[in-house]
Task: structure prediction
Amino acid sequence: MAKTGTDIAYSMQLLAGSALVAIPTETVYGLAGNALDARAVAQIFKVKERPTFDPLIVHTSGLDRIPDFVESIPEKAYALAAAFWPGPLTMVFRKKAIIPDLVTSGMDSVAVRIPRHPLSLQLLQSLDFPLAAPSANPFGYVSPTCARHVDEQLGEKIPYILDGGSCTVGIESTIVGFDGDKVSVLRLGGCKIEDMEKVVGKVQIKAHTSSNPVVPGMLHSHYSPLTPVTIGNIPQLIREHQGKKLGILSFDQLYDDIPLAQQFVLSKKGDLDEAATSLFTGLRQLDMLNLQLIIGTYVKEKGLGRAINDRLRRAEAKRN
Ligand code: TXA
Ligand code: MG
Result:
């Protein structure tokens, strides 16, 4: 078990000494290290068992600090920053040499985010370096949305978890890139497309093309529980898989004939934001029950529903 608490000064001391600290954000917990310290960054990849071709997000506390490590910020990025930072949005910019190549998997761009969680914001403000932080889970598994999730999987390998309670958004940040005046969404996430389009006009969604090898976090089979997952029409799937020990990840209702303990309802009132908040907890809980199959359903393709469906699609994709 890792030490867990709310000690910012201790977190700072560990981070300044190249050690890692798990930090809370409004999206998911991150496994943080000094983004300018290649030794700390190497440790992140090691602890997560993450291939080094999958680049990390760099977290900072304010727009004014970004020019320290980024060449230039496009105009539309300023507009998005004004509307959504601090928050569940990550933007990709041209990097400066001060960012180690390991952070960006050798690319000349770096992904940047200002998170909204007060504890991590306070930590970032107090540090004189930015923090590289992927989600604090073993590579390929479901992201952690509370300190206990982190402890269960990485507790043995890290000295400290900064405990900021349960993540309010519950799904990773939306990642966008810029090509001149065009904004492309590289990963669907906690910042809604509809809200972004009010600020910068039409955006292009490149998130679930399979031909996106430059961004390995987009690997089709990411965010997967160990139990097989099938998404579709729940009553029909229950009939098809009769006789198996099934788990149900449902949007808003319970199903007869399946034990209550094997059902997880994402939002009783049918609210997409609430469903996003509980999605990863639901997948984790069902994954611990030794089930033969988890059955789920897609939700409406709007608001956070797009990101929920994206994670469900990936959970369904076979691990290889
Ligand atoms: O909400 C989040 O984004 C969380 C919290 C901790 O901030 N972090 C997170 O990190 O989800 P991670 O490592 O699980 O996902 C980061 C993804 C990479 O897999 C990659 O797809 C993308 O960000 N990425 C990183 N650098 C990039 C770059 N230079 N260009 C394009 N995509 C990049
Ligand atoms: Mg991740």
Q: What stands out?
A: Residues 134-135, 143 surround magnesium ion (ligand 2) (CB under 6 Å).
